[in-house]
Every structure is written in structure tokens, then in C-alpha cells.
Amino acid sequence: MRFKIILFLLGLTSFNAMAVLQDSYSPKIANSKKAKEYYNYSYRLFNYIQTKGKFADFQDLLKISKKGLSFTKSSDFKNLSGLQFLTGMTYKILLNHDSALYYLKNSMMNAQRGNELDIEISSIQQINYLYRYLGQVEATDPYIKRLNVLRNEIKDLYLKDKVISALSDDFLHRGAYTQAVELLLGSLSTKEYLYKQKKDYKARINLGLAFSELGSLYLQLNQNQNALSFLKKGEPYFIDYTGGRVRLYRKMEQAYLNLSKIDSATLYYNKIYTEMKVGIYESAEDLSSANRLFAEYFLVKQNIPMAIKYGNIAYQKGLASDSKEAILMAINMMGNLSFQQKKYDEAIRYFEKALPNSNNFSKDIFASINLRLAQSYEHIGDYKRANLFYNKYNLLRDNIYLEKTKEDLNVIEFKYKNAQKEQRISFLNVQSKDQEKQLIRQKQYKTILIISVFLVLIIAILIFYNYKNKQKINLLLDKKNRLLDIVNSQLLVANQTKAKLFSIISHDLRSPVSQLFTFLKVQQVNPISEEEKLNHQKKLLIAASNVLITMEDLLLWSKSQMENFELDLEEIDILSLFEQTIGLMQNQADAKNIEIRLGEIELKSINSDENLLVIVLRNLLQNAINHSLENSSILLNAGFDKERRPFVSITNKGATISKEKIEEILNNHNVKSRSSGYGLVIVKELLQKINGVLQIESSLDATLITIRFN
Q1: What is the pLDDT of residues 465-479, one digit of tens each?
Q2: Is residue 107 a contact partner of residue 121, using CB atoms and an 8 Å limit?
Q3: Which residues contact 632 (CB under 8 A, 6 or more apart)?
């Protein structure tokens, strides 16, 4: 292994790494040049192991970084703090938290003395992570205070963004999601800017991590579509970072499972396995997590066989990992599986094994384990221990589940006291047998009376049952009538849609088809020259293209009338959209010698369905061309109105349209005339799908058609 590392270092530097690593420097001699060489080695090796190395490589990294520390001057703050940071990070990965905190704190202090802000911020971020990981959140307060000081003092854009990222971690952990979102979105913009400036590996990975963090945040808020949007944007930036890509896929798997899209979740589950290579240090932990997500999903769906299948894999991979968190989550998951199968003794063994360390990872998991233990002991009749764990759970979840916990606790206490009383009752029963004999005779007298009352009660029940049965029949008939009304209403809507479609086809397809037929007839009857024939064929092609475009519009409109029609939302570039639409309508504009120009494009992009938006713009632009004066121009604009709502507008010069006519055009849903056509009918209906509103303004100077998006 050491030979491989030396070969790697030889590839990264221009001097003999073998000689440097094997040189027996005296710990008493401080040498800044050698310290710098060791720091560079350690830094590059750390990045290499994270992306392509093995877990065991960190032991070699630890030896190299500590050897560099042995002869680094105490005044050489940059190399000293850098080597201490890498040593602390290595101990953190090796789960030696005490040593990790020791070296990271020293790194922070020496970086602060030497004004090495980059290393200081990184050290503070890792210290805070470890304290939160260990459940000592209050210990992070002085470090958060220092980050806020740096945020106000630092002017460098990269370092300021790094501070903001560290602060967003704290907001996330404390549940302050609003502040976290604000910081992360601001940080994302900064990282995008830095990446455009540098385009190096570090800037690219930082940008990918920013998308990934936003995805994680939206996952916590159960906004799974937003989470997927950011996660997909982050994927290209992890092209050569296997660990980051695997963790991104794991989050996407979680989001799709939350949406119950099992096929998509399976796709990213398989991608995780594809990315894994034998020996990658994070593989066992990530594979355990990927399988645990499926096990928990099927457990909720009550598909126990599938939950067991994935749960066993998650458990095996968790135990094989070096992550205490992965081991804990796997054991807790196996406990839940056993509990759902009513194997309460087995569940208790798993939960009691997970309980001691769970409080360091998550208060929620710690509380849930206490609750499951209480419920498991309750099921096996050990009410005393059940009562004990319910008390612990009550303290942990007092504010959220106070009433429910008290109710459960009272039930357990009642059962526990009853269990004690049963022995006393058994003893008393022996003494009461004589009294029971006397009571039997009294009961015999009462039996006759009870039988009489019972007969009367049966008659009353039969009468009541007959009455209720009639009520049920009436309700059933009423329900059937309502269903019939719904079916009739749906049939009426379907007939109206069909009639509208036939009206549109007969009105707007007849003209281009007739034009196409006329061109073909002329070509057949009249002999024409070769040049005229080429020109004629060009016109035929344009006419056929218009028919095809019209048919595509009608097809998409008819699909939009279906109940299960779904929008395909994506970020659309406005300039490309305008250029595409102009290209489709250029021939028609050239026929009237009309120039189509682009105006102010303040709105750069919009999240919408590109197919629907293209049809809307094409129809509106076609309408503008039809009603424009020859030798005039049409102007396309995009921006924001006074209320900061996005809009797209088309301005043309033609005959003035009266307010009454505009009102009729906007409110009329029928195809009456050439001026409206199927175009505006489709435009208005499709705009409703994408939250757009059509507005028309006309004056002596021009006619303005505007689409405003909510």
C-alpha cells in the first residue's frame, strides 16, 4: 500500500517523493521547506483517498502528516495549521473523536495566529460538526460567535462564502430552516460565480456540494420535487468524485421513495451499486443506507418480505462498515422489522443493543427506541419495564407528545396494577365460593326476568334493524343517483370537447389542407419551368409544414384535455424560446415583408412546460403576423412587471382593436370567426395549464399582447 502511495506522490510532484518520504529527518530540526513539502503531500493524498482511495490509506496519511508536524516550526503557522487540520480530519474519519478535536482546535488557533482564514474556517466547521455529532451542541456556541465575526470582517468572496456555508450547517442542525435556506441560496449564487471564474476541481466540487446541501434541506422539509431539482443540478459537478456522487444518488433514492416512485428510486439504487468499487472506504456505509431506505419504505407499505430482503442486506453492510452511525441505524431498523413481525423478544434485543449510542446521533432516534422498547415490553406483559421506558420517552417528547404519552403511561400503570391485583383476586375467589352458591340461587330467580326482558329487546332490535336497513337502501339509491349525475356531467364535458375539436379541425385545418391541395393541382395541370417548379415545391413544403404544425398543436391540446395530463416542467431559456418561435414563423413574416425583432430580454429563463409555451407563442406570433400591416415590424419582449411577475409580450402594428372586441376575444370560448380561430382557444386553455394569463391592449400606434405568469 505504501508503495502505491509513493507512486501517486511521484505523479503529483516534480521531485523525488521516495527520497523525501524515506528521509529520516530529526524531529528536533525544524525545516520550513520540508514542512511545506509534507503539507503538500498530505493535502494531495487526502484528496486522492477521498475520491479514489481506500479506508486503510488514511493510516498511511496519518503517519505522513504527523511526521511533517514533528519538524514544523511553531512560527510556521500556515504549514503547522494545515498539517494539524489534515491530521484532525484523518482522526475524524477514523472515528477517533478526541484526537480529532485536539488537532482541529490546535489548527484553528495556529491558523488564527497566522491569519490563515481558509484553514481557520475549515477547522471551525469540522469542530462544530464533531460537537453536534457527539450531541454537545452548546459547545459550538463560541465557534459560531467567531464565524459571525469573520462574516462581518472578511471581504474576500470565496472566504465569505465559506463562512456562510459553515453558518448554514448550524441553522440546519438547530431547525432554523428559513435562515438556512436564505444562506444556502445566497451561497449557491456565489459558488456559481466562483466556478465560472475559476472552473477548477475545488470550485466545481464546492458547487456540487451546494446543490446537494439544498437538496438535503428540502428533503428534511418533505419538499421532494424541490429536492430532486437541486440534486439533479448538482450531479454533473461530481463527475470524478465517486463519494459525492454516491451520496447524491442516495438522496435522490430517498426523494423518489418519499414520492412512492419506486421505479425511479430503484434506478438510483442500482446506480449506487454501479458506482461502488471493491475497497472504497465509504461503500459499506452507503450500501447499508441505500438498502435501509428500501427496507423502511416497504415496512411502511406493510410489504414485510421485501422489507426483510433489503433489511438483511442493510444490516450486513452496516455491521461491515466502520461507521457507528451506519451500525446504529441498521440495528434500529432490524428492531423495527422484528417489531412489525410481532417478534417482540427479538425486537427488544436489537433495540437494547442500539439504545446506548443512539443519544449521541439523534435525539429523535433515541426517543423512538425508548418508545419501541416500552411497546415491546408491553406486548410481552412486562409492564414494569414498559412503564420505565414510557417514562423515559415521556421526558424526551414531553412537549410534542405530552397528552398521548400520559395516556399510554396511564394504561401501562393500570395494567401493571391489575397484574398485581390478579393474585389478590385469585385468593379472594377461593374465599368467595360459598357466597357464589348463594348468589346462584338468586340468579335463578332473576333469570326468568332477564329472559323476558331479552325477548322484548330482541323484538325492539328487529324493528330497529328493519328501519336501519331501509335507511341504508335509501342512502345507496341516493349514492347511485349522485354517481349517475357525475357520469352524465363527464359525458357532457366529453361531448363538448369532441364538438370543439371537430369545430377546430373543420375550421382551421380546412384552409391549409385546401391550400396544399391547390398547389398540387396547379403543379399537375399547368406545365411550369424548372425554376418555377423549385419555387412551387418550396411553397408546398411550407404549406405541408403548416399542416403538420397545426396537427401537432391539436394533438397536444387534445392531450391536455385528458384527466391524467401532466406538465413537463423545466427551466426554459427565453432567448432560445424566442429564436425557435421566430424560426417557425419567419416564412410567413417574409411573405408580408414583416421584420420580427427582439426587444428587452430582462427575463432570462422561466420554469414552465416548453411544449405548451412554444405552441402559445407560435399561435400568438402567427396571429400578430396575420393582423400586421405589410412592411411593418413585430417586437418580442420579456421581463418583470411592477409587481415583479414575469411576462412575455408581442407588439405589432395593425388595425386598432376596440375594447368590446378585445373583451369578446378574451371571454369567448367558441370558434366563431377567422380572427379568433382555434389558435386563441388553444392559447387560453393551455395558458391555464401553465398559470399564465393573456392580456390584449390596442391603440392607434400598436397592439400589445402580453402573457403574465403567476
Answers
A1: 888 888 888 888 888
A2: no
A3: 594, 595, 652, 653, 654
